[in-house]
User: Fold these one by one.
Assistant:
Number 1:
Amino acid sequence: MPATRPLHLAVALDGPAQYDPAYYVALARLAERGALDFVTLGDCFARPGLDALAVLARVAPATERIGLVPTVTTTHTEPFHVSTAVATLDWVSRGRAGWAVGVSTTEAEASLFGRRPAAPADALWREAGEVADVVARLWDSWEDDAEIRDTSTGRFIDRGKLHHVDFRGGTFSVRGPSTVPRPPQGRPVVVVDGTAGVCREPAARYADVVLVRAGAPEQAAALREDIRRRAAAHGRDPDTLRVLVALAVDLGVGEAAPEPGLAAGPPLAGGGPHFSGGPVELAQLIAEWHSCGAVDGFRLAPIAPHRDLERIVNGTVALLQHRSLFRTFHPGGTLREHLGLARPASRYAPTTRTPASTQAGGAV
């Protein structure tokens, strides 16, 4: 059936390692000008470069609407630290944060920490799912109104509205509560690449946005349906998931590589996991795949970040907007609002609270 949902578009800021924050600020502002939902910035322990989460924390005050989604590796990283770092990004961006779940699979990466050897991918993704679970619990561990901030009485927190999560997973345990108040979005957006079978289950169970890699709309539709079916089996409403095709794009066919150290894009057929062509043809591909209900949108990865992103925004997106297939402004102030996702309530907050129960926890 044809898709009736809004089209969602995001872009990856990946490319050769850069150490000037102005580089990432310029790209994020360009994406924001096109009203894209969010930008992603990849990261892993296997490559040199700046920390993606810290980079986007620098980008946050230089932008106003665009969502910011760094990759955060769950392997060798304490879940409590993942929770506080992503919550902090949500606070400094005023509700525009997400995080892409990553795992670390090699012995070389494990040796950087010296805590444990590398593990099989299926075990790492089970652990990643548990991290996503406990991170959300830690975000919920502060009720929305737990902060009192009453200077006249010196009361800062209502202890009755802070909660221990008491989570025990296969490789870690976390008691909580968090040391950071509940994020503006309640729970920042979780992004998982669900293409591989080993990560399909945690994607269906915990992700808000699932990336898939498909060479044809029929393949994308099959992946989307499988993820939605798995989500329903976990008691989730499949309509709360956004499934985006991750597509590398080269919009400079026949041109020399525009940036030092960046190879020209591969000769690729339109419609495959990589797209090679012009902005108009890319707009047509996006419109066709979305109109037939195969996907909810695309996360585009420019082969040449500055060149291709400019052509995406000024060419592809402008054409989709002209055809009324993509919005011309951000619908709200948070990433959840861009994606049409509701702000979740804290799982620990009671539906009703009597004055006595409120006072029982005391305050500090």
Note: Residues 121-140 form the longest helix (20 residues).
Number 2:
Amino acid sequence: MTRLTTVARALITTAAVLLASTALTPTARAGTDPKAPKDFVALRSVDPTIMQEMRYVTPHNFVGERIDGYRQPLCILTRPAAEALHQAQRTLLRKGYTLKVYDCYRPQRAVDHFVRWAEDLGDQKMKREFYPNVDKTRLFTDGYIAAKSGHSRGSTLDVTLVRLPAKPTRPYHPGEPLVPCFAPKAERFPDNSVDMGTGFDCFDTLSHTLDPRVQGHQRANRLLLKSTLEGFGFVNLAEEWWHYTFKPEAYPDTYFDFPVSWASLTRTH
């Protein structure tokens, strides 16, 4: 118990520093934006020990720029999903790991941004890292991009494992040389997560959770994440080792569009 408490305190301190250093100021339009339903929460308020590396508020993603609707590096989820993730985190901390989320709730305007990007066949600046073996004309056909995303319903997240003690991940520098997302871990972008066989958002069949080509410690890491999360009600998307949805979903048929920001969670009385 003492070791767990020490680890948790260290993670809380790290998370606070990261939040303070990366927080972005909401735009002036925030006052007119829709609000989140009352049962949406910031993951940090439920479990501050879970690491957050919110990729879509940065240019380090398959589009290569900050995505519409992401105003702050903040994981927002429905409360049942956040509380289930908290229970999974408690289990993993005892095994020497922490969860790290890359994306949680995703506004519809962000999905629309992905669609516009996918339709612009001339924009392929991030191809070498994120989809080196996929022709951009096939992104819709192959299911990598769609007009709707389960993330917009609030119970889906993209997540990985980090071995403790967690090492920092260096910032991505726009324009730096890109390396394929399925290259050996020592060669691809230096994420501090365990080796899952590919990086996050790797558009390739190697990202399929149970792809038979992924073996050894890479497969073991995927299965540890999968078995742990499934034990607390999450369901994996077979095509993406990082993608999990808490079931039953609170809003199975609703696609929200409030921005990812603290202001979206503020209620006016």
Note: The chain has six helices and seven strands.
Number 3:
Amino acid sequence: MRDEHGESVKRYRSLLVDLLLAAAVLAFTIPTTAIGHSYALWGDPPDWLSHLVGAITAATMLVRRRTPWPMIIASAVCACVTAQTVPLILAAFSMTSEHRMRSWKIVALVLTAVYAVADYVDPYTDETLYLSVVRALTLVYLPALVGTWVCKYRGLVGELRAGVREREEFAASEERRRLARELHDTVTHAVTGMVLNAGIIRDVEDPAEIPELAAGIEDKGVQALAELRQLLTVLRRDEVPAARGADAIARLVRDAEAAGLRVDLHLDLPEDGLSPRVKHACYRLVQEGLSNVRKHAPGALVQVSCVLDGGQVCVRVDNTAGEGYHTHTMARRAASAGGGYGLDGLRERVTLAGGRLTAGPTPDGGFAIAARLPLSADDRSVE
């Protein structure tokens, strides 16, 4: 909407300028002929012809942005018939400022010559050929030269504006993708766990287990609300969310074990020395891996490894083939409810942190997600 408004304002402003130029041409030609101060380079044309040539020349100012030739020809004829040279000046500047003419130098020289002749034979000016040529070069050829610079400047400004719009659109797209990743990681994983626990409650045989399972659903809901509240705080205050480190990864594993997964954790990450983006990427990778196991491989044995290796952070979540358990129906429902964007978003997140992600099936029928990340990443926000 803003671009359309800007284009509309620009169009009306250009039309206003053209109308003012047309009025200026009429002001220089019609009154001069009416008081008898106009003259022609040859003969003595009737007044109606001078008025007609002046009006046509003024009208060509309205189409000077589309094509320069009507304005060029009319201004030259006007100088020969009425001896008015102002249209020549406007034509010389407009033909180069509004158009990229390859032959502008030749046309400018022709207009300069017409101006010099009209100025030289003007009975109201000195009859010095040198001064007429100087005035012609100054008032005709120089404006044409300046017009080429104006045209190049407008082109450069247009390219810069187009580049700015492209960067703005790219930044907006990246921000939407970042929000989509955060919402997916926050909502999808929490809801998946809640769906699975709800399925267990429906199929559980011992009523004494129901309060514990319900408490798990409540905890996951509270955790999801807390993360959503933190994300909304970031959007409103332009701050960065707190990065999740080794303690958060351990908590993820404990929650997964409470939901029935068998997880073997090997965690050896320093609390200091890792950038917020790397910490967050590690947390999200483990979260995505555990969530995928709950949805696609219930009953599998999961191994989570977060260690330093060769100056890099190595994170891996792999699982054996799922063995199934009494909530396999709910697991399938949770899987079908997923958006399918988890790995794509995770790959983007790891790439932004300067790392590389691999994901695929293992020889034993399981699945593995692994990433190698640098110890630090140049970032200003956690994504």
Note: The chain is about 65% helix and 10% strand.
